[in-house]
Design a protein that fits this description.
Length: about 220
């Protein structure tokens, strides 16, 4: 089993690198942010509960995301492992993950911590555009990775969206929450010998090369 976690602040490239890794490793990428946004889009009870929280840049309650992930990692496509993108992001979530994996006789095999300075992150989030088609989910940036035609996905032709939490004030709130609630996970996983640092500044290709390099240190990782 290869059970990876992508750790890193908003806009650090978890989605961008995660998309590449899922192809490279043939493992599903499980993004709690994508799952929650899908619930909001569909207008489910869960979606109505989390929409204002996400829009403000706060974290949704631990028990909500723990339940989503517990259900998701039990599905058949996670039989050889998975890549978690955006979960866990609090110590209680990390402890809940540890407990649910122990129960299945497995464990986290590696944590890739993508580091990018705050001032770069705000620009990345504010300029981000996302494909509205869930099956595609391509990620663009108006400056560093623009689509060929404004607001149209190069891959599937669907409309591109600007996330409601990608306004500058919400990004700043997300960054504050990251430093306060999620950064302590670096020590949590470092003390377990699982943390691998990745410098997230550079082109997406350069960062991917560093990600593969970091993965060579992960037991059951990849990439000869
Ligand atoms: P989530 O969707 O997980 O957002 P996030 O963690 O804030 O991270 P992002 O998706 O913003 O950034 P990313 O690292 O994926 O960057 P990307 O690759 O897109 O969560 C959203 C919300 O949901 C949370 O705020 C919370 O409310 C809730 N939530 C989710 N999980 C939760 C949990 N576990 N507990 C509680 N609440 C939870 O890249 C960003 C931009 O930069 C793109 O435009 C991209 O093209 C560009 N880019 C990427 N790499 C590079 C590069 N190397 N150079 C230049 N540009 C780049
Ligand atoms: Mg993301």
């Amino acid at each position: 089993m290869t059970n990876l976690i992508l750790l890193g602040p908003p806009g650090s490239g978890k989605g961008t690198q995660g998309e590449r890794l899922e192809v490279e490793l043939s493992l599903p990428r499980l993004s709690t942010g994508d799952m929650l946004r899908e619930a909001v889009k569909k207008g489910t009870d869960l979606g109505r509960q989390v929409e204002p929280i996400m829009k403000s840049g706060s974290l949704v309650p631990d028990e909500v995301v723990v339940e989503i992930i517990a259900e998701r990692i039990g599905q058949a496509d996670c039989g050889k492992g998975f890549i978690l993108d955006g979960f866990p992001r609090t110590i209680p979530q990390a402890e809940a993950l540890e407990a649910m994996l122990t129960e299945k006789g497995t464990a986290v095999t590696g944590v890739l911590n993508i580091a990018v300075p705050d001032q770069v992150l705000i620009d990345r989030c504010v300029g981000r555009r996302l494909c509205s088609n869930k099956e595609c989910g391509a990620i663009y940036h108006v400056k560093s990775n623009p689509p060929a035609q404004d607001n149209v996905c190069d891959r599937c032709g669907s409309e591109l969206l600007h996330r409601s939490d990608d306004r500058a004030e919400a990004v700043e709130e997300r960054l504050r929450n990251y430093h306060r609630q999620t950064e302590p996970l670096e020590d949590f996983y470092s003390s377990r010998g699982l943390l691998h640092e990745v410098d997230g500044v550079g082109s997406p290709h350069e960062v991917f090369e560093r990600t593969l390099e970091a993965l060579r240190g992960v037991s059951g990782g990849c990439c000869e």
